[in-house]
TrEMBL record:
<dbReference type="InterPro" id="IPR029045">
    <property type="entry name" value="ClpP/crotonase-like_dom_sf"/>
</dbReference>
<dbReference type="InterPro" id="IPR001753">
    <property type="entry name" value="Enoyl-CoA_hydra/iso"/>
</dbReference>
<protein>
    <recommendedName>
        <fullName>Crotonase</fullName>
    </recommendedName>
</protein>
<dbReference type="GO" id="GO:0006635">
    <property type="term" value="P:fatty acid beta-oxidation"/>
</dbReference>
<dbReference type="GO" id="GO:0016829">
    <property type="term" value="F:lyase activity"/>
</dbReference>
<comment type="similarity">
    <text>Belongs to the enoyl-CoA hydratase/isomerase family.</text>
</comment>
<keyword id="KW-0456">Lyase</keyword>
<dbReference type="Pfam" id="PF00378">
    <property type="entry name" value="ECH_1"/>
</dbReference>
<dbReference type="InterPro" id="IPR018376">
    <property type="entry name" value="Enoyl-CoA_hyd/isom_CS"/>
</dbReference>
Length: 259
C-alpha cells in the first residue's frame, strides 16, 4: 500500500499505523480520511494481525480536523465531512481486532475523536487532550459529543467541551479517557507491550468482547445482559475451537495454541 499520509508496518502479530502529516500536526483532511478508508479496506483482507496500534508522527497524535479547510466550507461540505469522518471512525471501531491509540502528543478535536474510536488509549503523560471546537465557533463533528458523553458522563463531557482548552493527559487519565500514561518517549513501546499481552488471548474471544462491550453500551441493561448470556452460551457450540483449546490447555497445563 502506497500512502502520502500514512505509514503502516507489521511486527509479528501487531500492526502499527502512523498518521504521517507532521507539518500540519497530522490534521485530518479529506485526503487523510480517503487514505484511512483505503487502508481499512485492504486491512480487512489481512488475517495475520491480532492487534492494531494507531499513532502519530512528530509531536502530535492528531491536532484535529484541518482547520484551514473550514474557512470556506459550505453547509453541504461540512455535513459530508462530518459524515465521512464518522464513517472512517466507525470502521475503525468495528474492526474485529483490538485497536490501541498510542497518543504520542496532542490529541485535540478530531484527534481525540479518533482516539475515542479506538478501544484502549495509552498516552504521553506530558501531552494535552481535548475537544477545543467551541474556541473556533464549532462543535465536535466526528462523534465527540456522543463518545465523550458515553465514556466520561455528562458533567465531564460538558466540562471538556465548554472549557475547550484541552486538559493534561494526567487529568484525562483521572477521568478515564486514557487507560495508561507513559513517559513521552515510551508511548509506542508501552502500546506494543499492551498489544502483546492482548494478543496472547483468544482472537475469537477478543472479537466477541468488542461486540458485546460496544453494542452493550448502546443497549438497555436488560438487552445487554441477554446478549451476554446468548453469546456466552454460543461459545459452547461444538465447533467453538478456541473455547475447546483454551479450556483444554488450562487442564493440560500448557499454553493455548490459537490457530
Ligand atoms: N489544522 C490545520 N493545521 C494545523 C492544525 C489543525 N487542526 N493544528 C496545527 N496545525 C498546523 C499549524 O497551522 C502549523 O502550520 P504552519 O507551520 O504552516 O503555520 C503547524 O501545524 C504546527 O502547529 P503550531 O505551530 O500551532 O504548533 P504549536 O506547537 O505552537 O501548537 C497546538 C500546537 C496547540 C496543537 C496548535 O497547533 C493548535 O492549537 N492546533 C489546533 C488544535 C485545534 O483546535 N483542534 C481542533 C480542530 S477542530 C476539529 O477537530 C473539529 C472536528 C470535527 C469536524 C467536523 C467536520 C464538519
Amino acid at each position: 500500500m502506497n500512502f502520502s499520509y500514512l505509514i503502516y508496518e507489521e511486527r509479528d502479530e501487531l500492526g502499527i499505523l502512523t498518521l504521517n502529516r507532521p507539518n500540519a500536526l497530522n490534521a485530518l483532511n479529506n485526503e487523510v480520511f480517503d487514505e484511512l478508508q483505503s487502508f481499512l479496506d485492504s486491512f480487512k483482507q489481512s488475517n495475520n494481525v491480532r492487534v492494531l496500534i494507531i499513532t502519530g508522527a512528530g509531536k502530535a497524535f492528531v491536532a484535529g480536523a484541518d482547520i484551514k479547510a473550514f474557512q470556506d466550507m459550505t453547509v453541504h461540505e461540512g455535513y459530508d465531512f462530518s459524515e465521512k469522518g464518522k464513517s472512517v471512525f466507525r470502521n475503525i471501531a468495528q474492526l474485529p481486532i483490538p485497536v490501541i491509540a498510542a497518543i504520542n502528543g496532542f490529541a485535540l478535536g478530531g484527534g481525540l475523536e479518533l482516539a475515542l474510536a479506538c478501544d484502549i488509549r495509552v498516552a504521553n503523560k506530558d501531552t494535552r487532550l481535548g475537544l477545543p471546537e467551541a474556541s473556533l465557533g464549532l462543535i465536535p463533528g466526528f462523534n465527540g459529543t456522543v463518545e465523550a458523553l458515553k465514556q466520561v458522563g455528562l458533567g465531564h463531557a460538558m466540562y471538556l467541551m465548554m472549557t475547550a482548552g484541552g486538559i493534561k493527559a494526567t487529568e484525562a487519565y483521572d477521568l478515564g479517557l486514557v487507560q495508561q500514561l507513559t513517559e513521552a518517549d515510551q508511548v509506542l513501546d508501552q502500546a506494543i507491550d499492551m498489544a502483546k499481552k492482548i494478543a496472547k488471548n483468544s482472537p475469537n474471544a477478543l472479537r466477541l468482547l468488542k461486540t458485546v462491550l460496544r453494542e452493550g453500551k448502546e443497549m438497555t441493561r436488560t438487552d445487554a445482559e441477554a446478549m451476554e448470556s446468548r453469546e456466552f452460551g454460543n461459545l459452547f457450540q461444538a465447533d467453538q475451537a478456541e473455547r475447546i483449546e483454551g479450556v483444554n490447555a488450562f487442564i493440560e497445563k500448557r499454553k493455548p495454541n490459537w490457530k
